[in-house]
Design brief:
By secondary structure, this protein is an alpha+beta fold. It folds into 2 domains: 11-168, Jelly Rolls; 177-281, Homeodomain-like (Arc Repressor Mutant, subunit A, Orthogonal Bundle). It is 43% helix and 18% strand. The chain has 10 helices and 9 strands. The strands form 2 sheets. A 6-stranded antiparallel sheet has the order 1-2-8-3-6-9. Strands 5-4-7 form a 3-stranded antiparallel sheet. A hairpin with a 2-residue loop joins strand 4 and strand 5 (62-66). Helix 1 packs across helix 3 and helix 7 (226-243) crosses helix 9. It is globular.
Length: 285
């Protein structure tokens, strides 16, 4: 792999790790307007994670909201544009894995696919399950300390993340354009309102359908219920805050829209496997 380019229009990039087979960086979007940007290009096959905020990706392979629940798959030199329906200020990190290594991972995780099929980059985005999110975000946290770290640890962790993403791509909903757009529009709205109390009738009215239809289509397309998706957005935001050093769990719970500290703890434990106090104390890798 040649040396990476650090310049992508409108994005600040800092490389945290570079080796012949894998790289990882963190990025921050500098856009200040929610409107559609000009065309951009990545120089590598990039898997992009969002740590905070969200952006909408407009790619030749599709349009999707990239938030902490989903990752972007960007092909080299492929033009794409972004917009910010949930507001500006998003930030995150990206992985780059050499193509032959990525294909080997996919062949192990997805033996059902032919050599020509790509479980990841055939679409513009994919599901980021909890395990992939935890592994990747914890690895970034380690590298951000800028202390010596064993390359074996870093590269194996990156490969585990890619394997988790490939496994998460196994379940796919039926591709109905109208249903996909309904689910995406609902995700955009949830990205703006997930910190407050929301009624299903309010969401359904916002997208112009009845509540039952919204629930059925959203679960079909996204894989989880509307309620659980909103809880997962809150939990991912909580994880980010805890990794950044938040200490007031009650204040964090209320700020994220949970009814109480106990509601926050119960939901966090259910989704992550440990309570927020324990998560705060140690790495999840």
């Amino acid at each position: 792999m040649a040396s990476p380019c650090s310049e992508v229009t409108g994005i600040d990039i800092e490389w945290l790790y570079e080796s012949p087979v894998a790289r990882i960086n963190r990025w921050r979007c500098q856009e200040v307007k929610p409107e559609l940007t000009g065309e951009r290009q990545q120089h590598w096959r990039v898997i992009g994670f969002v740590h905070a905020g969200a952006y909408e990706l407009h790619s030749p392979r599709g349009r999707a909201l990239i938030d902490p629940m989903r990752v972007a798959f960007l092909n080299p030199e492929e033009p794409y544009r972004t917009s910010h329906p949930c507001g500006c200020g998003d930030r995150g990190s990206s992985l780059i894995v050499r193509d032959d290594v990525r294909r080997e991972i996919l062949s192990e995780v997805r033996p059902d696919l032919s050599e020509d099929e790509d479980a990841l980059f055939e679409r513009a985005s994919g599901l980021c399950n909890n395990q992939a999110f935890l592994l990747q975000r914890s690895l970034v946290r380690v590298l951000e300390k800028h202390q010596p770290v064993d390359p074996l640890f870093v590269e194996e962790s990156i490969f585990r993340v890619v394997a988790e993403l490939a496994g998460a791509a196994k379940t796919r909903a039926r591709r109905s354009p109208s249903h996909q757009e309904l689910a995406e529009e609902t995700r955009r709205i949830l990205g703006q309102v997930y910190r407050r109390r929301v009624q299903l009738t309010e969401l359904a009215a916002s997208v112009g359908v009845n509540p039952y239809h919204l629930c059925r289509v959203f679960r079909e397309q996204v894989g989880v219920t509307v309620y659980r998706y909103m809880m997962l957005l809150r939990v991912r935001s909580a994880m980010e805050a805890l990794l950044e050093g938040a200490h007031d769990l009650t204040g964090l719970a209320l700020d994220l829209g949970f009814s109480s500290h106990s509601h926050f703890t119960f939901t966090f434990r259910r989704e992550v496997g440990v309570p927020p106090s324990r998560f705060r104390r140690g790495s999840r890798i």
